[in-house]
Write a structure and sequence with these properties.
Layout: E1 6-14, E2 20-29, H1 30-82, H2 96-152, H3 155-163, H4 187-190
Antiparallel strand pairs: 1-2
């Protein structure tokens, strides 16, 4: 009736000890009765959609809260790989990611200290190597001089050079000398 749906129930009417004398019909508007159910469905659908939107937004911020610290740790690992041991990760949380970030910062500090110690040791080693190479060159020069000195230098001076090469008597002096050279027969051949 009038675009509305009704639920009808036809019940026979009986007179005492007689066949049915008529019927009565009970009708109730189905649309009015289902209106509360439709309202409940719309409410549940709206609440579900709102919960879904809330869950999506929350998961976005939650994921961002997890990925941002992880991305910072990745950037830190890349920096350490490049040799930048001064890069530090900012710690904003006290959860597992915060613990990991603090452990990373401690590791970077220790690596920086170890690299500095290694660089210092390397420089010291280079200086010692250079000093040893200079000493080795001096020894080689002295060995060559020793070979040549034995031909021309008296044995006492040779012993002094071998036992005390830094003796003051062996220091270099500027002194005017006169050299008389006499070419004896066979001297040139000896030298």
């Amino acid at each position: 009736l009038e675009g509305e749906t009704y639920l009808s129930l036809a019940v026979p009417l009986y007179a005492p000890q007689q066949p049915p004398v008529g019927r009565y019909i009970l009708q109730k508007s189905l649309d009015q009765e289902l209106a509360a159910l439709h309202h409940l469905q719309r409410t549940l659908l709206g609440t579900g959609l709102a919960a879904l939107v809330g869950a999506v937004v929350s998961s976005f911020f939650l994921a961002r809260g997890v990925t941002a610290p992880v991305q910072a740790l990745v950037q830190g690992a890349i920096a350490v790989g490049r040799g930048d041991y001064q890069y530090r990760v900012t710690v904003r949380t006290h959860d597992e990611l915060g613990v990991l970030a603090r452990a990373y910062n401690t590791m970077a500090e220790q690596l920086a200290a170890q690299v500095t110690a290694l660089q210092t040791a390397y420089r010291e080693l280079q200086q010692q190597t250079q000093a040893l190479e200079a000493s080795l060159r001096k020894v080689a020069l002295l060995e060559q001089a020793k070979i040549h000195l034995s031909k021309f230098v008296p044995a006492s001076v040779k012993r002094l050079i071998e036992t005390a090469p830094d003796a003051p008597a062996l220091d270099k002096h500027d002194q005017a000398v006169t050299v008389l050279f006499l070419d004896n027969a066979g001297y040139t051949r000896l030298s």
